Structures are given as structure tokens and as C-alpha cells.
Amino acid sequence: MVVATQSTKTVEELCINSIRFLAVDAIEKASSGHPGLPMGAAPMAFVLWDKFMRYNPKNPKWFNRDRFVLSAGHGSMLQYALLYLAGYDSVSIEDIKQFRQWGSATPGHPENFVTAGVEVTTGPLGQGIANGVGLALAEAHLAAKFNKPDATLVDHYTYVIVGDGCNMEGISGEACSFAGHQGLGKLIAFYDDNHISIDGSTDVAFTEDVSKRFEAYGWHVLHVEDGNTDLEAIAKAIEEAKSVTDKPTMIKVTTIIGYGAPNKQNTGGIHGSALGEDEIKLTRENLGWNYEPFEIPDEALNHMRKAVERGAADEQAWNQVLSDYKSKYAEEAAEFERFLSGKLPDGWADVLPTFTPEDKGLATRKYSEGCLNKLAPVLPELIGGSADLTHSNLTELKGFGDFQKGAYQNRNIHFGVREHGMGAICNGMALHGSGLIPYGATFLIFTDYMRAAIRLSALSEVGAIWVMTHDSIGQGEDGPTHQPIETLASLRAIPDLTVIRPADGNEVSGAYKVAIAYAKQNKPTLMALSRQGVPNLAGSSIEKAEKGAYVLSCGFAPEELDLILIGTGSEVQLCVGAAEKLIADGKKVRVVSMPSWELFEAQDQAYRDSVLPKVAQKRLSVEAATSFGWQRYTGSEGGSVSIERFGASAPGSVCLDKFGFNVDNVVAKAKEIIG
């Protein structure tokens, strides 16, 4: 290999090597990280950020910026190097030196809630490209909604760098198949084709033709054969990708992982380990890098920092577009600005329906359908759909059309049987920063297929709404494969995810009031809704449901109580029926409806003690799921009516009865506890 001396290097080479050695030095100092990808992908990243991407380092949240996602999030130093070199205030050279350290702005994987300029949290492979599909979908929807023939207000691209690992993970197939079907032309993915993963050569497990796969998805596919040095070919590929407007583009960029490290490049060893002092010395010599650790030549820094002036000019030009738009389309502009502000329209919650015991009882999924269709006209930012279960989940926004290629203004999204992809796409829509409120729906049991995306919605502070129906063995005939048992407990274990299992129509309305408000606060909510009908309960209300738990019925002082019955969802009615029998038998019983542990825990101690007084320690929880976790409320003197095995195939009412979810069994269990 010919070694280029410092004097012969172009400014572009200096910039690319600046990216490489910031990564090398930071990872070496941390003794932890993944240097291979930043070293190999530096040329494509530089060309993109220097010549094509529109962004303003001094205003990372400028609306019409292009979005950049590093789906291969283990290569996070690539992104941190770019942010520092481009002039983002969120990443300083000291932050680079604190890579992967406690409290730093440069964590091991990119986190959108930590580092300004990071659009989405990546790390679990494939999530980033699926988030990118959501970002591109949001752009397409908003462009169709707000753009006019004489005013292009929404116009930006989503660029994603994916690796072999991303392409191996199933979620990328789900999301990219969906993107191809939808023809999301402003989505451009760079496939860092380096043939190396942790186990070494990808040949041991991954030999398919990725380009043909993406062609089959309906993507435009290009190949840059030399992604290490051919900057012109990279630029031409991006130009061609941008010219293709009716389908997303995948640019396969063949690179050498760890490019420039003589003994370790193109090996599994450089994928996830620091180079080591000796190899770094050889790499500096090989690439002609005559600088100390973390030292960047002024010529490179000055060139990259031109992004600050360029970004300010781009934003100023867009601001003029917005100003002209406001003068021509005042009503649409006001709605657009409200979207971006994160504010909800005045009185939006007034449309949520309320019910009395005289109203016919319905399944809570049916009440959910009513809420969605009351909210849709007053919340134009509400958009979403189901994973091929629209008419089971009852999530169609009636009259608002199907989101399809050529009809991006519509708001019903058909995700197909792609639960995991749906979850990550919804996260991407929420993280677009345009105020959209996405919702995704499937059966509660199939949260198992999308748990990583739900977890990331909580971790990443994403205002998504998860509408999950068929929430128990009451699902019935489909049998144990479709009947969630441990699912609620596992979802409640996710930090910062609010799980709500409403008991009647009022509690469903309360759940939506919480979920919509939380979405604007960047907090996800998951609803568990029934297939079977439930009565509307005397004493329920929207306001009470918002507190997570409340006294549904009780005519006794706390110190007099023999028992507190605590129910959720469709089992609250069993608590009411059991209480009536127990009271008739001379027992003093309180019924508590607890739709949400998380909402209840958010109340002050005085309120919690008023619902579950400490003097009343004999308590019985009733929920058609495992009892795991309920001990926090039932205590050592209490118990549970629960199910601790998998379900069975039978009509839902039969399943519930056979497993003891009937009034007589609740009464019997209650008497055991009362003694």
C-alpha cells in the first residue's frame, strides 16, 4: 500500500481520517467500542454530510433538516465524530474523550434523549433502519398534507447506514418490505458491505444476495464497488438515489472494515475491540496521520465547520418558505405550527364518550374504536393502524382513507403481518419531531414479537400508543398460542411504559385521555383491551381512571374492612358481583378498580393510602393473567385469582369459567383470605 504523506493529502482525505482517528482514539481511551465500522464507513459518511445532507448544527431540531440514522449503532463513534466535526454544541472534544463513560454525551450506542443531533436510539440491530422507515413515512405524510403546488414546505430525506447485522435481523426485512411497497422515495440506505461480523466472515452464516432481496422489496439498488477511496462514485450514487422519487434506494457500498489498520482490517477482531497501542501506531503510519490523539488538523476542522454557515443559510431559506406559506395558507400554517409546537387543540378531550350502567356493555376494544373515531376529527396528527388485524383490533379511522403510495395524506396504515416492524416504524414517526401521534395495534400476545420496539419506545422517550386487544384467555377458541398469560406482567416490568387495562367504556376513554396527553410528553402507553363484552360499571369515570386505581364501591370505613377486592379489565365485574354476595353474607368489602399500576404509583401517598388503606391488609387481586407482581398490592395476607398455566382452546366464556374466573370462585377465594 502506498503511504500518502501529509503534504499530499487533500482536505477530503484529512476530513475522512479525522473521523477515523477520533473513533480510534476514543475507543482506545475507553478500552471499549467498535472501531471497524467508523474506519470503513468514514468515506461514505463524509460525502453524505459534506455534500448532500441539509442540517443546522446550531439548531439540531430545525424541522426541515435531513434525518440521519446510524442503524449499525455499535459504530457510534462515527456519528459522534461527525457531530463534533460539523460543529454541534452537543459533542465537544472532551465528550469524545469521555466516550462510553458515566454521564457522558457519547454513550456506547447513540441515544436520542442524550445527544442532540442523534435522531433515534440505535443499538439493537435493525431497529434503526425500521425507525428510518417511520421517519420517511412521517415526511411523506406531512408533505402530502401540507405542501401546495406553489409552496413546498415539507421536503427532506432520511439517510440510514446499515450493516450486515442489520440486514440479518428480521425486523429490517419487515420494515424494508413495507417501505418498498409504499414507495418511500426519500428514504436512502447505505449498506456498509464489509462481510465481517463478530464471528468473523459473514460467510459462516450470511451468503444471500442482499441487492436482489432489496430489489424484490421494490427498492432501487445501486452498488459502489470501492467505498474506501472512490468518493466520486459515492457522490454519484447519492445523486442517482435522490433522482429516483417513486421508491426507496439502497446503496450497497463495499468497504474494508477497519480500513487502514494493517494487521487488523478485514477481520472480526476489529469489529468490536480497540486496536491497541501497537496497531494504532502502524495505522497512523499507514494513513500518514501525524497528529497526537484527539488532535484534528485545522484544515479539516475548518472545512467540516462550514456546515454551520451552510446550515444557517438553509434554515433561513426555509423560514422564508414558511413565511410565504403562512401568508397564502394561514389555516394550514396554523395547524402545521401547532403540530410542531407539541400542543394539543383546546378541548380535544371533550369528545371522549362517557357511559352509564344503563348503556349496553361492549368489549373494551369496541369502546377503543369509538374513542379513536371521536378523536380522529379533532386530532389530525393521530395516525396509525394494525398489523393485519384492523377489523379485530377495531382501529380503523373511518373516513380518513388508507395510507398508500400516491395517497400519503391518508391516516390508516396497513402494516401487514409485521408486528416488530410496525413497532419500530411507529417509533420513527414519533421521533420525527413533527407532533404526529402514531398508534400500532395487534393482539396482546404478539407484543412478544415487538417487545424490543416497545421497550425502545419507553427507553427513547417516544410518544407512541400501543393498542393491544384480545387481552386474556377470554380470547377463546384460538387457544393457548393466542392467549396471553405472563404478558401483562412482562410489560409492566418495562420502565417508563404505562400499561392500562380498562374495565369499561369510561375507563377506555380515560386511557385515551392519558395516552394522548402522554404522547405529547414523549411517553408511550399500552392498552390491553378485551374481546368479550363488559358492563359499564356504577362509579367508574374518566377522571378516576386517570388515577390508575380508585374505589369503585365501598360503604365501610377502612378500619372496618374485612377485604379489598382489586380487579382489572374484564375481571372488575367479577369483583363487583363477588362483593355483593360477600356483603349479603355480612362481610365488609371494598372493590377497587386498578386499570394501571403505573398511573396509580404516580399518585401521592395520601391518595394511594385512601384507595388501599394500610389498616386493611387482607386483599384479593382478580386478573385473568399470572399473579406475578401482584404481591406488591396484595401483601403477605392477601392472594390472587389468577392463571398460572397456559390456556386452552374453547369459547372465551368457557375458558374463563373453567379457569375460575367466575363470581363463585372469587367469593370462595375471598372467604379463604377472610378466614
Q: Explain this structure to me?
A:
The protein has 675 residues and is of the alpha/beta class. The chain is 41% helix and 12% strand. It is built from 26 helices and 20 strands. The chain has a 6-stranded parallel β-sheet, sandwiched between helices. The protein has a 5-stranded parallel β-sheet with strand order 1-2-3-7-6, sandwiched between helices. It has a 5-stranded mixed β-sheet with strand order 16-18-17-19-20. β19, α24 (631-634) and β20 form a beta-alpha-beta unit. α12 crosses α13 (330-341). The longest helix has 23 residues, at 306-328. It is elongated, with a radius of gyration of 28 Å. The model is unreliable at 1-7 (pLDDT under 50).
What's the name of the CATH homologous superfamily of the largest domain?
Thiamin diphosphate (ThDP)-binding fold, Pyr/PP domains
Using the alpha-carbon principal axes, give the shape: elongated
State which percent range the strand residues make up. 5-15%
- What is the fold-level CATH name, i.e. the topology of the largest domain? Rossmann fold
Number of strands: 20
Radius of gyration from the alpha-carbon trace, in angstroms: 28 Å
Report the major sheet: 6 strands, parallel
Q: Approximately how much helix is present in the residues?
A: 40-55%
Give the second-level CATH assignment, the architecture of the largest domain.
Answer: 3-Layer(aba) Sandwich
Strand order of the largest sheet: 10-9-11-12-14-13
By helix and strand content, what is the structural category? Answer: alpha/beta
Mean pLDDT: 97
Uncertain spans, ≥5 residues at pLDDT below 50? 1-7
